[in-house]
## 1
Amino acid sequence: DTAVSQTPKYLVTQMGNDKSIKCEQNLGHDTMYWYKQDSKKFLKIMFSYNNKELIINETVPNRFSPKSPDKAHLNLHINSLELGDSAVYFCASSQVSGSWDEQFFGPGTRLTVL
Amino acid sequence: GDSVTQMEGPVTLSEEAFLTINCTYTATGYPSLFWYVQYPGEGLQLLLKATKADDKGSNKGFEATYRKETTSFHLEKGSVQVSDSAVYFCALSANTGNQFYFGTGTSLTVIP
């Protein structure tokens, strides 16, 4: 069974379009995250949700809007895509039980904006 | 604020060589420390972790010891294999448990 899954795996689209990436975890975790990994492999947290509520929102353009319909899902919607949005986006989850939490990552979604 | 500083890569080693990837951290309180590995085309996977000072995390021949006195968590392996080629990330989990801080990643290539 896949613990954290993301769809799609690859996404190629034109500038200006709106797209969504879906994430689901079957681990029963309370917290989910979105990360952006650039071409140099630098990993930056974008958002964190705990039990469907936003708890971390780093400096991310408001074109990016996360949505959590339930605690097992955290989707990422991106409006008016720009060239600089091209990256690999990772979803992750963890159980909020203290500072020893580990995060479980999805396989990533490679977004290419043309 | 909390942060992780990781040795820059890329690192290229011959098979069976000794590996060290340095990681130091800055944190208030007592964070947990992690090493994650990312194989080509995949997401990150937890490699090992340590939750308190002097703890040693180990997995697949890799080890790292949580050193509070030097604020370090260096990753070591005595004999690397070609299959260890990946990007390695040091990470810190703050006391609040909701925020992870990742290092910039170190790319390792092991050649036969």
## 2
Amino acid sequence: EAGVTQSPTHLIKTRGQQATLRCSPISGHTSVYWYQQALGLGLQFLLWYDEGEERNRGNFPPRFSGRQFPNYSSELNVNALELEDSALYLCASRAGGELFFGEGSRLTVL
Amino acid sequence: GEDVEQSLFLSVREGDSSVINCTYTDSSSTYLYWYKQEPGAGLQLLTYIFSNMDMKQDQRLTVLLNKKDKHLSLRIADTQTGDSAIYFCAETLSGGYNKLIFGAGTRLAVHP
């Protein structure tokens, strides 16, 4: 069974641009979570989607947004990129009490 | 409030036991987790414990939960060099939030 897959693996953007990251959950999982892991910091909760709806968001500005598609895959968009947005963005899907993470997308903002 | 705290670094000798500690603040946490992150990789779920349990053992891993003190620990028996990684403690909140709150991670270094 395929795990959580994320793309792209690496992404380099310049300040002010937009970035789009994608995530496919494990088959059968309807919930998708996004986390940001900045260098030297722990994981910060970004967004939770379930059944196509945004259920909760963390303490991030509105330029961080996303959506979940009917097939439960998800997209994270970051507008007006800032240098401090450089981080590893992790997606996870959930089954019961277990959260399964993808390998992450590393975003570098220059 | 929501806060999970861990010590940042632990160094052990190969073959010894490692104990990684974590404290959390939300008494309504339903699940508590330990994740492992190797360099350049995503997070791997190691084990989790329900809040109504006080111990869980899985091969070399033992999780102890002290709900009164809001303290969680992960013991790794016979630590190997392959156990070198960052270990994250996390709690999930009840009340419908359904999100994990992570600690900053403990970097475990295993030396010969």
